[in-house]
Amino acid sequence: MSSKSILLLPGDGIGPEIVAEARKVLTWLAQQSGLTLVMEEGLIGGAAYDATGNPLPEETLQRARACDAVLLGAVGGPKWEPLPYEVRPERGLLGIRKALDLYCNLRPAKLFSQLVDASTLKREVVEGTDIMVVRELSSGIYFGQPRGVQTLADGSRLGINTLSYSTSEIERIARSAFEVARKRQKKLCSVDKANVLEATELWREVVIAVGKEYPDVALSHMYVDNAAMQLIRNPRQFDVIVTTNMFGDILSDEASMLTGSIGMLPSASLGDTAALYEPIHGSAPDIVGLGVANPLATILSAAMMLRHSLALPELADRVETAVNRVLDQGLRTPDIMQTGMQKVGTVAMGDAVVAALSES
Ligand code: NAD
User: Fold this and answer.
1) Atom 30, ligand 1: residue with shortest CA distance
2) Would you list the domain boundaries of the chain?
3) Catalytic status, residue 193
4) How far is the C-alpha of 98 from the C-alpha of 259, rounded, in Å?
């Protein structure tokens, strides 16, 4: 097998704890499969700010460009909240997504059948949930100009953010989403607010035009307010959802609750020449250092990396099977704990995944 290089960016809060477990799994897989996996760690977020004064040091960016894939933990935390926006940890994350032009964010919301009762929603609603949210990641209101807070002549203040999308930005994310749908149930729902926002009226027009190239995929459209409702009313109606940056941010967190815990959900952020994988949750400052964080979202992100960036789908399958197996064994971190199950911490959960892998 060939040699692959991965940049690990543990970041802040529980980031280092959960990335260590994913690293353990990757190291084991590499040893067993004869794959040479070069894993190096870099700085991002608050940890990078503390060390260098910059949440996204140039060195991190250079190393991210040079490697095959990046695996990130999480950034942010109360310690850095008083800082000006431009050096906040979250700027590091937005910055790396932008710099690597990671425009396509894949956020699967798949319910593990063992966790059906961990969801706050009823079993008959969530059972069978298997949705892929395709979120546009490098444009839209999180990046549009002008932005900022201005002081007006009368002394009052005006906050401004701009929602803008170009045809080419919509075309490329639509194409990614149609390709994803093609490999699944061939159903794509584009979510917008075309009745109110001109930028998403264009979004709808362009998605329809791209859809002509994919006659085998059934395309539908939904306004975002309805989509938020439909997701918890009947999630099984969805296969793939494609939407803008902010709508995708919100809807994918909502979808995560269908599956029981935010600690279970991985994500991939893909560009044409780079890719970054991370759990969808944040740095969880409330549980940092307690050894209770769920590492499975990060381990499943590593599985997505094996599949999408390293072209090793059989190893990705093995990791996903191992995660299923530890859930079958009844092991649970506190966020997914259920009566009658065995409560374990972060390290024990990582060890259990490695043990399950060695049984496969
Ligand atoms: P969060 O996702 O960090 O935490 C929300 C809740 O989920 C908390 O109760 C936390 O304990 C729990 N949780 C999250 N991940 C978990 C895991 N792996 N195992 C068990 N429980 C878990 O969101 P937040 O509290 O809104 O934000 C905290 C910080 O994280 C903020 O600074 C925010 O900006 C940052 N953040 C970063 C990212 C990222 O790095 N991608 C994403 C979201 C938030």
Assistant:
1) 282
2) 1-106+264-360, 120-139+169-259
3) yes
4) 29
CATH domain 1-106+264-360 topology? Isopropylmalate Dehydrogenase (3.40.718)
Residue 227 is encoded by which pair of tokens? 């989509």
What is the Cα–Cα distance from 27 to 15, expressed in whole angstroms? 18
* Active-site residue flag, 249: yes
Contact 110, 129 (CB under 8 A): yes
Query: Smallest Cα–Cα separation from 169: which of 219, 109, 98?
Result: 98
CA-proximal residue: ligand 1, atom 8 (nearest): 284
> Which pair of tokens denotes residue 157?
């203040």
Tokens 């990614």 correspond to what residue?
Answer: 176
- Ligand 1 contacts (CB < 6 A) are 14, 18, 74-77, 90, 93, 262-263, 278, 281-287, 293-294, 297, 335
Structure token digits, residue 346: 């972060």
> Which residue's CA lies nearest to atom 12 of ligand 1?
284
Q: What is the pLDDT of residues 262-299, one digit of tens each?
A: 889 999 999 999 999 999 899 999 999 999 999 999 99
- CA-CA distance, 154 to 103, in Å (whole number)? 40
Calculated CA dihedral for residues 53, 55, 61, 64, nearest 10 degrees: 130
pTM: 0.91
**Catalytic: 286?**
no
| Band of pLDDT at residue 126, cut at 50, 70 and 90 | very high
| 253 in catalytic set | yes
Contact 332, 352 (CB under 8 A): no
SS3 357: helix
Portion of the chain with pLDDT greater than 90, in percent: 90
pLDDT at 263: 86
CATH of domain 120-139+169-259: 3.40.50
